[in-house]
Amino acid sequence: MFLEMLLFLFLGVSMGTITGLIPGLHPNTIFIIILSFSPLMAIFPASCILVFIISTALSNTFTNFIPTILFGAPEADSCLSVLPSHKLLLEGRGYEALFLTVCGGVGVTLLTILTFPLLLYILPNGYEILHTFIHAILIFIAVWMCISDKNRLASFLVFLLAGLFGFVTLNTLPSETALFPALTGLFGFSALLITAVNKTRIPPQQECRNLNTSHLKGSLAGWFAGMITGILPGIGAAQAGVIAAQLFKAKTKDFLTALGGINTANIFFTFIVFYTLGKTRSGASWAISQLVESITIHDIILLVCVGVIACFVSAFLTIKIGRFMIRRISKLNYDIINKCVIALLVALILLFSGPTGILVAFVGTCIGLLAILSGIRRTHLMGFLILPTILYFSGMNIFLLGLFGI
Question: N or C, which terminus of the chain has less Cβ within 10 Å?
Fold first, then answer.
């Protein structure tokens, strides 16, 4: 049994690495495929399938930053990292950006191990407390985002446009159809087009020698924000990332560390929430819920142990793969790469979302360009997810859906 679980662990890490390196391909797609072959999966012990799911989900949270940093091809869980990581890449510090996200993932893994018994008590009670006030917290964050920018009017306009875009899109299209093209337009295409127009060149990348500094602050922020995403429905890593962005407004290193930690922490916490509350908060925990009615304390300990191994193996692989790719990025014609990435993203949108996805991406690109040309922080584009979440938790979405006839 041990050797079987070890095999499934490394199969999961391999699959998570592949899905992380390919923009638009999410582990949830793999889980759906696996569940469609459930009669075939029945020949394997349930514990092996659980090991595969957790290792796939966690390894993906590390490697999905590689295409985001190098090519600006964002996923929902890593779209905010396009902002500071691309800046570091243009400064020849792309390896440092990747290293910081890996530090965040490893940091929250260690914090989760240290606080695991406490989390079994905190998470159920935290859900009851935060659920009532989440829309008020998000309203405060949204207002603070706008008034703290130098161009308040443009900030409010972009946030509102992105929010209305998200509200209409997410309520008329399935999330799997809408999210990838919308976020690619808002954060990916807009940045890629500006890069293409400016004929940006990627300088030789240096391996920073001062990477042994403490990243505790960023890891703690990522751990806490990941806990919020694990507890509350409708709050994803992107919304939590906005909180981290406001905490570390001018501190790029802490921000990237926090972003790297949020996704990893979120996976751990969603499994603990599934155990303590019986609620699914991620595609991975949903997939497990389709295989077993409930999980025991022994299952959750197994998942945490497997998660720890998967995290450290994935961190090693991410550093190795990322270093290989980053070393070579400056030797290539970035203008050609830029155009190839745009063409690839268009093809992926057509594949996953069809012509409707192209329209969604076009609208998102226009709003993203407005933010860039206005000179405001692009975190305001997260209104795409924040405003619909506020409306959902405040109960206003039902009124507006009826008003707009959606």
Answer: N
